[in-house]
Design a protein that fits this description.
With 450 residues, the chain is an alpha+beta fold. It has helices at 5-14, 30-40, 66-72, 80-87, 114-117, 171-181, 196-203, 212-220, 296-314, 342-352, 373-383, 440-443, and strands at residues 18-21, 45-48, 57-60, 95-96, 105-108, 131-132, 135-140, 147-151, 154-158, 161-164, 186-192, 225-228, 235-237, 242-256, 259-260, 266-267, 270-282, 287-290, 320-324, 331-336, 360-365, 390-393, 411-416.
């Protein structure tokens, strides 16, 4: 179990999964260009030691691997989904502590400038400017006091201002709408460099009435350490790297965007909410976290939560082996241990109904890795029947962003499992001894494998 962002970096470093970048990098485009190329290659975590114009180091791609997510929660990778499916229903309230690493340095309202205190990372060519992309917004419901944690991008304006995209049906948007209806600001905190369990809680699809600080405790199997914020009536993670305290201003909207989002296209300019900062607290040697929308870290965090929902929906109707979302978040692959020929159809029906975003589902046999897109395509090419293996639901709403909602109407599922009567004909060939082969012994170090 890994309970802080700092410990996560240490864990990665100890396993050769964290690259230290000593060369100075420009936070405008260069940093994310290096990140994007790394995600296409070794897909390791990155720690930028020298970011131009900022005394703060930057870490990124730190939760990009499934084994890292499992280790952070103290689970075996093969047990990740079934074990989390049972934890999701639990709640472990946070533990309030006194002194906290995240408050070693306190920058008050009179001296803070978010454009100075935060690395000015610009991601994509047409982005409106620097954004906070790995900030978890914490807020309490104005009436119930329940905590919500959610990922929201925030455009850095300068001084005490950021612009935030959020709206109902997102839970934070509902919290803000309730506060605004009462003509009150919504106290909030932006957590950067959060404990891994809070990252997952912020990605989760738990019910509206559930408390996500308690959900983070459930994910990690122990209470989340929290401390009272300095200027807002909130508890914040004691072991985070940085917290921006403040409030979301009622009845005020400003133009935000464009911004390159997770589908690898731009969300254009829109009138969005304004966050007014009242303090920045941080570790004395704080490390700033950056996530690129739609990159491997973003997809790993968000897809795990979708996979849990799909697992829970399919498990009552078929023997689920694993669930994956290779490549994107608007579809999934479900691997089942098929007992009856109708199992695949039942799994298809359950999976497309498990979450609104699931517009494309592929069901495969247990011998196919649902996280490997080449394996899935192989199964479609060799085991899918266009005559009998299609489930098509017309007119069903999917991804709901207004500008693209019409494109995402309807759902499609494919049965890429072998008929049970032909199981022997579809048994995959094996290559004895392949697991012991190190290509370095045969092809030389240049082409070798570890």
């Amino acid at each position: 179990m890994i309970t802080s962002f700092r410990d996560l970096l240490t864990w990665l470093d100890g396993r050769g999964l964290l690259a230290h970048v000593a060369r100075p990098v420009d936070p405008a485009y260069e940093l994310t260009a290096v990140l994007r190329k790394t995600q296409k290659g070794p897909n390791v975590g990155l720690l930028f030691e020298a970011v131009k114009g900022s005394p703060t180091r930057v870490a990124t791609n730190v939760m990009s691997r499934r084994e890292t997510l499992a280790a952070a929660l103290g689970l075996a990778p093969e047990r990740l989904l079934p074990d989390l499916a049972t934890r999701v229903a639990k709640a472990v309230p946070p533990e309030t502590v006194g002194a906290a690493p995240v408050q070693e340095v306190v920058i008050g309202a009179n001296e803070l400038d978010v454009a100075r205190d935060i690395p000015q990372v610009i991601h994509s060519e047409r982005d409106a400017g620097p954004y906070v992309t790995a900030g978890i917004f914490l807020a309490r419901h104005p009436e119930t006091g329940v905590y919500n944690a959610s990922w929201n991008r925030a455009q850095i304006v300068g001084g005490d201002r950021l612009r935030v995209r959020m709206m109902p049906p997102q839970h934070l948007g509902q919290y803000q709408a309730a506060a605004e209806a009462a003509e009150k600001p919504l106290p909030a905190a932006i957590v950067i460099g959060a404990p891994p369990a809070l990252m997952l809680a912020a990605s989760s699809k738990i019910p509206f009435e559930a408390d996500e600080l308690a959900a983070a405790g459930a994910w990690q199997g122990a209470p989340l350490r929290v401390v009272p914020a300095k200027t807002v009536p909130l508890l914040v993670p004691a072991d985070a790297e940085m917290v921006i305290e403040g409030e979301i201003v009622p009845k005020l909207r400003e133009e935000e965007g464009p911004f390159g989002e997770f589908m690898d296209a731009y969300v254009e300019v829109g009138r969005n909410h304004v966050f007014r900062a009242s303090a920045v607290t941080r570790r004395s040697d704080a490390i700033y976290h950056v996530i690129i929308a739609g990159g491997t870290e973003d997809l790993a965090l968000l897809s795990l939560m979708l996979e849990i929902e799909i697992w829970k929906a399919v498990a009552p109707v078929a023997r689920v082996v694993d669930v994956g979302c290779p490549g994107q978040l608007l579809g999934c692959v479900v691997a089942i241990d098929k007992q009856h020929d109708d199992d695949a159809k039942a799994a298809m029906q359950a999976a497309v109904g498990a979450h609104r975003w699931m517009k494309f589902v592929v069901v495969v046999d247990a011998d196919v890795n649902p996280h490997d897109s080449e394996e899935v395509l192989w199964a479609i090419h060799t085991r899918f029947s266009p005559e009998t293996g299609v489930l098509h639901q017309k007119g069903v709403p999917g991804f709901s962003r207004p500008d693209v909602a019409n494109l995402h109407l309807g759902k499609l599922a494919l049965d890429a499992t072998a008929p049970l009567a032909m199981k022997a004909q579809f048994a995959r060939r094996k290559f004895p001894g392949i697991e012991k082969i190190d290509l370095g012994d045969y092809l030389g170090e240049r082409f070798g494998s570890r």
